[in-house]
Amino acid sequence: MAIATIDPTTGTTIREFDSLTEDEVDAALDRAARCFTDYRKTTFEQRAGWLRATADLLEAEADTVAAMMTQEMGKTLAAAKAETLKCARAFRHYAEHGAAMLADEPADADAVGASKAYMRYQPLGVVLAVMPWNFPLWQAVRFIAPALMAGNVGVLKHASNVPQSALYISDVLRRAGFPDGCFQTLLIGSSMVEAIVRDPRVVAATLTGSEPAGRAVAAVAGDEVKHTVLELGGSDPFIVMPSADIAAAAKTAVTARVQNNGQSCIAAKRFIVHTDVYDEFTAAFVDGFRELVVGDPTDEATDVGPLATEQGRDDLEKLVDGAVADGATVLIGGHRIDRPGWFYEPTVIADITPDMELYSAEAFGPVAALYRVDDIDAAITLANDSTFGLGGNAWTTDAGEQDRFIDEIESGQVFINGMTTSYPELGFGGVKRSGYGRELTAHGIREFCNIKTVWIA
């Protein structure tokens, strides 16, 4: 794929970029390695100051940054600005709490025959971040803020369709005062990733993206015995039980499915509804989809913009068309929109069976798969009948049902009577083929630390 900004609203190529040469990548890794030698010795106070300065710049430039992201991948301006401000919040969070998260952790010295014993968290070194296009800033900042606060340095291989966002990230960190080489964007194709993972100057890698991409990076890193964190796809269930506030559940369900034009790993994708409230929920859910405004993402009235790439739109269309051919029922939508750009109608589809590809695939776009179940056991069984395990939602006011959903849904996170989202204050990550490791909170900042045991006689 060419490294280029292509406006998904029109399909027009805005700007193309040259890939770095092997020599340029080598020079960047050398800068990173040399930077780490000194950067690891900086204090938490110094790093926190740079993080706060980055947050200040993001807040001041939010409108400009939002316009850039909207042009590159088609999210609405409101969503893009909210993402920018969320990134600023994450930088401030780690500036405020990072030192405490990495403070020496005392152990029971008497129990181990020592005068003093503790665990110390120390940075690992140069970490490669491979990031996707759907949240061009936030996906990267989830790694950057904690990693830099911990004393690591990073190099970024971003998605090829968001090069301006990728370059902005390294630029804003530089302007905030971080040392030269502390974080560098590498405009490269996927074919160069393996060599970077294998490079001895790179000690670990983190990837957010597709399952095939995660497998590839993890396989190389495993061969080199290097630590990885993977956040891959998701096909999150959204379960509605009879005790739920059906109107609130249906309204939230619409947002949960079409957020970011439906292109979010933690967007609800499978709507599993108890038969007693199925008709009521479905009517409200479909009405909510009918009211959505699809159009230019720079228009304040727009709810859903285009898919980020033409291939993404084509893949989504193939999933829906295949399910319909095999007997699924489209309740609303179901077609690409005949206009320039990569638009697809917000779609609700029912009568899906396990033999359809849509049953097991991650539909990355504004397509909701609707299922009817007879009881909580069937709801949990269907929710877990997926290779993914990223997030999940359950709507019920019954305490016993809530406990069962929390205990039995196979996922990295469960939201009760609310929409799955991410916060710096909550751990983020999945199980099964949604990946491993955690981002955000203290768990995220410690992922790329050497947890060193200290014993003193």
Structure notes:
The protein has helices at 22-39, 44-60, 62-73, 77-101, 138-150, 163-175, 193-198, 211-223, 246-258, 275-290, 310-325, 357-360, 376-384, 399-408, 441-446, and strands spanning 4-7, 12-16, 105-106, 116-123, 126-130, 153-157, 183-185, 202-208, 227-231, 236-240, 268-274, 329-332, 347-350, 367-373, 388-389, 393-395, 415-416, 431-432, 435-436, 449-456. The protein is α/β, with parallel strands linked by helices and 457 residues long. The chain has 2 domains: 4-232 and 434-456, Aldehyde Dehydrogenase, Chain A, domain 1; 236-416, Aldehyde Dehydrogenase, Chain A, domain 2 (3-Layer(aba) Sandwich), CATH 3.40.309.10. Strands 12-13-14-11-10-16-17 form a 7-stranded mixed sheet, sandwiched between helices. The longest helix has 25 residues, at 77-101.
Counting DSSP E segments of at least 2 residues, the number of strands comes to: 20
Main sheet: strands, sense, barrel: 7 strands, mixed
Give the second-level CATH assignment, the architecture of the largest domain. 3-Layer(aba) Sandwich
* Oligomer description: single chain
The residue fraction in helices comes out at: 40-55%
The class by helix and strand makeup works out as alpha/beta
What is the rounded Rg?
Answer: 23 Å
Instruction: Briefly note the CATH topology name of the largest domain.
Output: Aldehyde Dehydrogenase, Chain A, domain 1
Mean pLDDT: 98
Question: Are there runs of 5+ residues with pLDDT below 50, and where?
Answer: none
Share of β-strand residues: 15-25%
The name of the CATH superfamily of the largest domain reads Aldehyde Dehydrogenase, Chain A, domain 1
Q: Helix tally? A: 15
Shape: globular
Protein name: Aldehyde Dehydrogenase
GO molecular function: aldehyde dehydrogenase [NAD(P)+] activity; succinate-semialdehyde dehydrogenase (NAD+) activity
Organism: Gordonia bronchialis (strain ATCC 25592 / DSM 43247 / BCRC 13721 / JCM 3198 / KCTC 3076 / NBRC 16047 / NCTC 10667)
Pfam families: Aldedh
